[in-house]
């Protein structure tokens, strides 16, 4: 029987649909590719990015031609998000869902027209029936595009047995998934991030879904009751798998020499945020710098490693970095930029090793609500979350305190899952206590990590392939 299954699965063609650097990071640069090839799958990366893959990464590639996105689809996807959030607000009597809305722009005539249209459709469709209407409209719009016809022709020519979409939030992949479904090809989607489900970001609708954990499965069924529970598989995420590869970790002497670090110092990592999440992020780095400088003046020997957010293009940290060269070592993520959009930044295999070594060789991480808490807790390193306002906060600037009200932070087992810094005056003491081993969140933080990521995160790549195999068998036999 097992031999029959192996023969049936041999050379099954799987299209891995990627649209951004995060999809490549998870499903090309991790063990995922090797796991599939070792199981004799015929992997084809259905490439909807601006990156050329086949030459650089030794993979089979089917490129999707570049098409300008249908402006109506983009508009109605925004409508869909806003009306879903309105419905959730009423359904669960919880105003937190309104925090997920981005403000509409009225700066130009074009912006004014689009925002007015969005407002009108939002008012007219903020019901369950309205959501269905807008979902149907989006699909109708995408089926009328040249990209849909192009993707349908590709699928007709290549005849994959499965299309695996690497995230659920990319509007430009809607037409490709629809083309597959209209041809009767099974489609599967991976829920990309720990915070995506409550934010009404399920743009891609597929036959099956892969989620990180039981928690995420429960959320998906909670927010999208039309999804059949049997079509949702708990698999973990490849995002954290490289941390379990001990061969990536360099010796302290080697790593410190490579990045001009002082082997006599203890280092604190400051993990930067994107400008939307933390618009005043540079001032938290400045606060950490002042706290470390005070501790050093009292006899400590501490340095700071600043790792920026890979999709942050701003120069807002420059002044703090320039004024504190004696304390801060800047170690940028090893990502490549080919455009100005977050989706046009490509990670590299080398960055897996870099991040793992920063986690391993620093004493703790500090940031504003970042999921790097999980990267560091894998290496048994504590995390301090900033949760106080900066004096530079004014009307029109987003308060970072809003972030901690989001639904995904309700997954914390308790407040002890991170070390909270709720006042600038507390920072110096809390950093000192962590360095002296007197304060840590690692125990509860590890519980939180497993709540969100699942119980066997190191096996995620194999678990995903097990799920895909189950789906192919189910739809083939």
From TrEMBL:
<keyword id="KW-0808">Transferase</keyword>
<dbReference type="GO" id="GO:0016740">
    <property type="term" value="F:transferase activity"/>
</dbReference>
<dbReference type="InterPro" id="IPR043148">
    <property type="entry name" value="TagF_C"/>
</dbReference>
<protein>
    <submittedName>
        <fullName>UDP-N-acetylglucosamine:LPS N-acetylglucosamine transferase</fullName>
    </submittedName>
</protein>
């Amino acid at each position: 029987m097992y031999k029959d299954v192996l023969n049936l699965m041999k050379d099954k063609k799987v299209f891995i649909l990627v649209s951004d650097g995060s999809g490549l990071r998870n499903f090309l640069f991790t063990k995922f590719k090797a796991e599939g090839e070792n199981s004799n799958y015929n992997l084809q990366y259905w490439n909807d990015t601006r990156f050329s893959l086949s030459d650089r990464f030794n993979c089979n590639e089917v490129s999707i031609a570049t098409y300008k996105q249908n402006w109506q689809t983009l508009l109605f996807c925004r409508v869909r998000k806003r009306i879903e959030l309105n419905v959730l607000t009423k359904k669960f009597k919880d105003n937190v869902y309104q925090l997920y809305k981005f403000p509409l722009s009225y700066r130009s005539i074009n912006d004014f027209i689009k925002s007015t249209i969005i407002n009108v459709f939002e008012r007219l469709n903020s019901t369950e029936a309205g959501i269905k209407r807008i979902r149907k409209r989006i699909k109708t719009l995408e089926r009328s595009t040249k990209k849909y016809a192009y993707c349908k022709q590709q699928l007709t020519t290549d005849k994959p047995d499965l299309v695996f979409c690497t995230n659920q939030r990319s509007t430009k992949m809607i037409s490709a998934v629809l083309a597959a479904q209209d041809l009767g090809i099974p489609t599967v989607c991976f829920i990309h991030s720990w915070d995506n489900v409550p934010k009404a970001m399920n743009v891609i609708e597929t036959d099956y879904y892969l989620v990180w954990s039981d928690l995420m499965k429960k959320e998906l069924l909670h927010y999208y009751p039309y999804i059949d529970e049997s079509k949702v598989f708990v698999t973990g995420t490849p995002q954290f798998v490289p941390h379990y590869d001990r061969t990536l970790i360099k010796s302290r002497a080697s790593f410190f020499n490579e990045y001009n670090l002082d082997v006599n110092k203890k280092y604190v990592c400051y993990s930067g945020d994107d400008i939307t999440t933390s618009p005043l992020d540079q001032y938290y780095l400045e606060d950490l710098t002042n706290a470390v400088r005070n501790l050093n003046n009292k006899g400590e020997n501490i340095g700071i490693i600043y790792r920026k957010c890979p999709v942050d293009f701003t120069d807002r940290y420059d002044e703090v970095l320039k004024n504190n060269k004696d304390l801060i070592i800047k170690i940028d993520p090893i990502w490549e930029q080919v455009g100005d959009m977050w989706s046009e930044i490509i990670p590299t295999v080398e960055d897996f090793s870099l991040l793992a070594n920063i986690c391993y060789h620093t004493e703790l991480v500090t940031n504003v609500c970042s999921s790097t808490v999980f990267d560091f807790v894998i290496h048994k390193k504590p995390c301090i979350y900033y949760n106080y306002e900066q004096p530079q906060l004014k009307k029109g600037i987003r308060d970072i305190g809003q972030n901690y009200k989001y639904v995904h932070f309700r997954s914390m087992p308790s407040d002890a899952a991170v070390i909270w810094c709720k006042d600038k005056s507390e920072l110096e003491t809390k950093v000192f206590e962590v360095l002296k081993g007197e304060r840590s969140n690692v125990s509860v933080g590890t519980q939180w990590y497993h709540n969100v990521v699942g119980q066997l995160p190191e096996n995620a790549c194999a678990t995903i392939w097990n799920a895909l195999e189950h789906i192919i068998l189910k739809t083939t036999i």
